[in-house]
C-alpha cells in the first residue's frame, strides 16, 4: 500500500448514549464520503458523563456499542477505531476505558485498555478536579495492532504525556499512533499540539488524534482541535471548535523514506 486516507472524528458527546451513537455514525459517514479508509473516533465517543457520575451503560465487548462499531465498519468497508467505550469488568464496580480497532469485515482486530489515568487538580488554572482512577481500572498492555497499512499503536488521551509508551510502540513496528482524547480546555490550549507533534517526530510516525470538543455538561468541557500529524511533525489536518470530520492522506512511501534518510530510531543508544 502506497498511501491511506485517514479520518479523525471530533464530537461533543454527552450522557445521551443513543444521540452520541447517531452523531458518531453521521460523522463517520462524512469521513467516508471524503474518501477515508481508516477512521478514528474520540475518547468517550459513546458516553461522556459528568465528573463523578457512574457509567450506567458500561458493557462488554459483545455489547451494543461495539456492535454498532462493527456494523459501521462492515457497512462502509473501513478500518474503524472506536475511541473508547466504558468496558464493564465482571465483579468490579470500576470499568476499563477501552479502545477497539475494527476491521473492514466487522471483526475485532485489537483491544487497548487505557494505562495512564487522569488524576489531577486543575482548579488553580481555572479547571476542575478529575480522579479517573476512582471509576476506571488501569490497563497494563501496550498494544500495536497489525494492519495492511502498518502497525497502529493504540493509546488514549493522558497517555500522550508519557513518551515511553510510544517508544515501545515504535519498537514494535508502529507506523501510526492513535490518540483518541478528551483533553481539558486548560491543558489543551498549551499542551495538545506540542505533545502530538513531539510524539510524531520522535517516533517518526503518523499521529491520528480525534478529540472531544465543546461543552458536555455544566461542569465539563473539552478543548477540541483534533489533528492528523505526519512523521515530520507537520499538521496535515486540524479541526476547529465544533463537531466535524477531518481527513488527510498518509504517504507510507514518504514515511519509509524519512526513516531511511534520518534513521534516528536506529541510532538510539539507550
Describe it for me?
25% of the residues lie in helices and 30% in strands. It is α/β, with parallel strands linked by helices. Strands 5-4-3-2-1-16 form a 6-stranded mixed beta sheet. It has a 6-stranded mixed beta sheet with strand order 8-9-10-11-14-15, covered by helices on one side. The protein has a two-stranded antiparallel ribbon with strand order 6-7. A hairpin with a 5-residue loop joins strand 8 and strand 9. Helix 1 packs parallel to helix 2 (64-76). It starts with a strand and ends in a 9-residue tail after the last helix.
Measured between the Cα atoms of the first and last residue, the distance is 32 Å
CATH topology: Nitrilase/N-carbamoyl-D-aminoacid amidohydrolase
Q: Tell me the name of the CATH homologous superfamily.
A: Carbon-nitrogen hydrolase
Shape: globular
Report the average pLDDT across residues. 95
Proportion in helices: 25-40%
The radius of gyration over CA amounts to 17 Å
| Strand order in the largest sheet | 5-4-3-2-1-16
% residues in beta strands: 25-35%
What is the CATH architecture term?
A: 4-Layer Sandwich
Blueprint of the fold:
Layout: E1 3-10, H1 17-33, E2 38-40, H2 64-76, E3 79-88, E4 95-102, E5 108-113, E6 119-121, E7 129-131, E8 143-145, E9 151-154, H3 163-171, E10 174-178, H4 185-203, E11 206-209, E12 213-217, E13 220-223, E14 227-229, E15 235-238, E16 244-251, H5 252-261
Parallel strand pairs: 1-2, 2-3, 9-10, 10-11
Antiparallel strand pairs: 1-16, 3-4, 4-5, 6-7, 8-9, 11-14, 12-13, 14-15
Helix pairs in contact: 1-2
